[in-house]
């Protein structure tokens, strides 16, 4: 049985910058991240994005310019983000936001490569 960390990084500042289309977030451990709204949208933890069955759904497309229209706190552990495409069913925990910030470049690289490969497959 693994021990749960005594304390996890806690957000101290969340700024949803509509002009930059990015979440600027700081944590109490000193980490600070800029997470593009596009990444937040395509990595939504909702069942719509993650799938309902054993096989993953196709990647979410067309979200390069997605905006955020509303953010609501969910208890003391998460936020619900409403995007301008109407999507609002994912709960973004502090742990998820930390991971998205820390892994931003790699997740964006994998996502964009997935889209590129899908486009090539669709052309064939």
DSSP, total strands = 6
**Strand arrangement, major sheet:** 1-2-3
What is the overall pLDDT average?
Answer: 90
Structural class of the helix and strand makeup? Answer: alpha+beta
Per CATH, the architecture is 2-Layer Sandwich
CATH class: Alpha Beta
User: How many separate domains?
Assistant: 1
- Helix residue percentage: 25-40%
- N-to-C CA distance: 49 Å
CATH topology name? NE0471 N-terminal domain-like
Q: SSE order in H/E notation?
A: EEEHHEEEHH
Strand content: 25-35%
Integer-rounded radius of gyration:
15 Å
Gross morphology is globular
Oligomeric organization of the protein chains = single chain
The number of helices is 4
The largest sheet, given as strand count, sense and whether it forms a barrel, is: 3 strands, antiparallel
- Unreliable spans are none
Explained architecture:
The structure is a single chain. With 124 residues, the protein is α+β, with helices and mostly antiparallel strands. It has one domain: NE0471 N-terminal domain-like. The protein has four helices and six strands. It has helices spanning 37-42, 47-50, 94-102, 104-123; strands at 11-17, 22-27, 32-36, 68-74, 78-83, 91-93. A three-stranded antiparallel β-sheet has the order 1-2-3. Strands 4-5-6 form a three-stranded antiparallel β-sheet.
